[in-house]
Structure formats: C-alpha cells, structure tokens
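We were asked to recover a plausible sequence for a given structure. The inputs and outputs are reproduced exactly as logged, with field labels preserved.

PROBLEM: sequence recovery
POSITIONS: 418
GIVEN STRUCTURE:
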C-alpha cells in the first residue's frame, strides 16, 4: 500500500521524536512552491519512526510514502499504487501503461484536487546519492506534486534548493532507545535498566540498529545476556551484521536494512582524500571535533572541501558550532566510526597519526596556559579515545608510547609507528 494512515508504531512512551514532528507540522500546508513547502530530514542511516504523530489529524488528505531507492520501474509502480488508492477503479498497471497514460500527470492532478481542501503529506524516503546534488527537478521524479503538497524528504545528502528547510535527525534519547530495543519481545525484566542502557549506548542509540536487535531478540537469535556480553567485547558493526544475516530468512524482504549497507552509501561516495580524513577521525571520540584538532589530524590543502563532504554525506552527523570561541565540526557516530575503521587497511598507521596529531595540539605549554583550557577540554575526549585504543589494542613492540610528560590525565609525547 502506498498511502499510509499512520498509527502508533511502538507505544505511548516512545516520545523522543515528538519535537521533530511538531517542527514538521509548522510547514505551510496550502502554499505553492515559492512558499517553501518542502523540508528535508538529514539522517545518517535510519528510517524515520512516525509514532502516530503524522496521522489524519494533521494531514486528513492523506500521507503518501515513497521508497526512493527503487529503480524507475519501482518508482512508477509506487506512483501508480498511490493513484489507484485515490481512484480504486483504475485498470492494472500494465494496461495503464499500454494505453499511453501518464502516471505522473494524473497523480499530480489527483493530489491537487485533494490538496484544495485538505492538507496532504508526501514522504520521499531515502533519496539516493547524486554526484551533483539533489535538486527540486530530481525530487519531482519522485513526487510529481511538488509545490502542491507538503513534501518531507529523508536523505543522507544535503538538498541544495533554497526553498528546502533542513531538519537534522540525531540519535534517540537513551530511554527511547531502550524502549525500541525491548518493545514487544517480553525480555525487559531479564536485564536491569542500566544494562539495557549499556546496550543502547553500545550502538549509539541508532534506531536502525536498535530495530534490528529487537528483531533478533524476538526471533531468539540472541538472548539478552548474550547481547549484553557482546556489547562489552565485540565491535558493533560486525555483530549487528551477523544478526542481520541470521534474520534474512525470517523477516519480509526489505523490512530491515543492513548496517554496512546503509553506511556504505555515505562512505563509498567519498573522494579518496575525504575517505582518508574519515579514516583518521574514526579514531576520535563521538564528540564534536575542534577545528584546530581537525586541521592537525587531516593535514590537507583541500580541508574546506573535505569538511563539506564529510558533513554533506553525513559522515559527520551534523555541523558543529562555536562554543566559547572554540570552532568545532560535528561528530562521527560511533557506529559509523566502527564501520570506517573496518574499511581502513592501515588502521595502526592511522591511529599513530591521530595520537601524534592530538599530542601536537595538547602540548604541555597549551595545557598550562589558562587561555587554552577551553580548547584543551574540547580535545580531551579525543585524546582519551585515541590513546586508550593505542594502549589497549596495539602491541608495545609495534607502537611504543612515550608519555614522559603529563598534565593531569593528558598524555604528551610521540607514538612511533615502528
């Protein structure tokens, strides 16, 4: 079915997206293209959970949902399905095409008729990557009624039209993550709330992963205790992909999306220079990266292009902002970082480079100067993450840490890649 009346998909306590949908509701509903009817959700890798707040009370004209990652034939079939919901007496899809009728024109006219009296929401879900950016012309390939209905687009890419308002989607709140992870599987009492929270933290509160693990718990492919143990000993991407493979024969095709499949959409479209930058930043913490630290780590003449690509492809989940005069980039989600590290062939070399770059910024002189403490504090989580990984995962004979000078917990010295 291509038109959806959305009811509650999880339960009444799942409310972390209400503010997001309240923002969507403020979109003008009876305006033309020049009045900015489109909004774009920039999402790293997850499907949007509507939780009942986009139902008929807000869009009585209907909510139409189109999966944009399908090929042209799949897009045409979805558009025809929408038209047939509006006009149930239509002939078959094949006969419709054989008669030379235009699906897009007829659907636009049908939506215009509805939108004259009732608001309509048209969701274009998961718009794929285009090398030259996503424009209104390309969006009209999916929704023939742009400028007539409210359009909500989910994409990993920035949409470059001036009339589009971007609404970045971050990870879920921890309580909502636990709800999504445990909903409907009858195992919540098996672990403590803190232990479920630890599992949610392991996957970075990412709905795509939480949904998949919920299915794994439901089908008993993993028990809560096994999942808790994995969260403390195993890299998240490899384990979640293993769970995905175990569910393939048990769930409808297309109902779950693999983690690496989703993350590869961003990573594989990056230039070699931007991939290198991503491979270095993957050893930092899941915190905003100070610009000074980024420049020390990446060391490229094309830094501005690299930064724009990392944000534009959602490798960094959102752009940072200046705080106390410290200019920052956004964060790399921990699942994305885990995936990127798995794609880097010279991970040991990259880790050594990152540790040395951090040490070059967090010098003893800077750490002793109160005017630099804000920057040092912003760099500290990244130092903790990188040096912990170097100490815990790298053989001393392969990577020797000389932390002969310290200021508090901040390491100084050089890591040698020998």
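RECOVERED SEQUENCE:
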């Amino acid at each position: 079915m291509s038109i959806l009346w959305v009811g509650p998909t999880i339960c009444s306590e799942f409310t972390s997206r209400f503010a997001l949908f309240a923002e969507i509701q403020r979109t003008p509903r009876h305006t033309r293209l020049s009045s900015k009817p489109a909004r774009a959700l920039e999402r790293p890798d997850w499907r949007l959970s509507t939780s009942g707040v986009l139902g008929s009370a807000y869009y009585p004209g209907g909510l139409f949902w189109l999966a944009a990652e399908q090929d042209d034939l799949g897009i045409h079939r979805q558009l025809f399905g929408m038209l047939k919901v509006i006009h149930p007496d239509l002939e078959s899809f094949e006969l419709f095409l054989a008669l030379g009728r235009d699906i897009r024109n007829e659907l636009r006219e049908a939506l215009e008729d509805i939108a004259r009296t009732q608001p309509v929401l048209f969701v274009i879900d998961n718009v794929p990557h285009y090398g030259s950016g996503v424009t209104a012309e390309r969006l009209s390939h999916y929704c023939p009624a742009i400028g007539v209905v409210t359009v909500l687009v989910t994409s990993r890419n920035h949409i470059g039209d001036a009339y589009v308002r971007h609404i970045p989607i971050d990870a879920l709140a921890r309580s909502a993550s636990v709800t999504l992870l445990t909903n409907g599987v009858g195992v919540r009492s098996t672990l403590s709330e803190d232990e479920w929270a630890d599992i949610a933290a392991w996957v970075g509160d990412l709905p795509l992963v939480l949904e998949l693990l919920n299915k794994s718990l439901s089908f008993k492919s993993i028990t809560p205790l096994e999942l808790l143990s994995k969260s403390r000993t195993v890299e998240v991407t490899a384990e979640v992909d293993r769970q995905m493979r175990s569910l393939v024969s048990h769930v409808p095709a297309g109902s779950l999306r693999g983690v690496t499949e989703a993350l590869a959409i961003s990573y594989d479209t990056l230039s070699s220079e931007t991939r290198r930058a991503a491979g270095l930043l993957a050893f930092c913490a899941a915190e905003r990266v100070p610009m000074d630290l980024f420049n020390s780590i990446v060391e490229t003449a094309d830094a501005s292009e690299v930064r724009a690509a990392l944000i534009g492809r959602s490798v960094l989940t959102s752009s940072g902002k200046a705080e106390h005069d410290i200019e920052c980039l956004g964060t790399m989600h921990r699942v994305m970082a885990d995936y990127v590290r798995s794609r880097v062939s010279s991970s040991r070399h990259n880790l050594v480079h990152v540790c040395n770059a951090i040490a070059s910024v967090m010098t003893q002189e800077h750490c002793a100067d109160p005017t630099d403490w804000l920057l040092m504090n912003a760099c500290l989580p990244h130092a903790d993450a990188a040096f912990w990984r170097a100490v815990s995962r790298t053989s001393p004979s392969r990577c020797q840490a000389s932390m002969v000078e310290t200021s508090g917990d901040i390491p100084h010295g050089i890591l040698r890649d020998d």
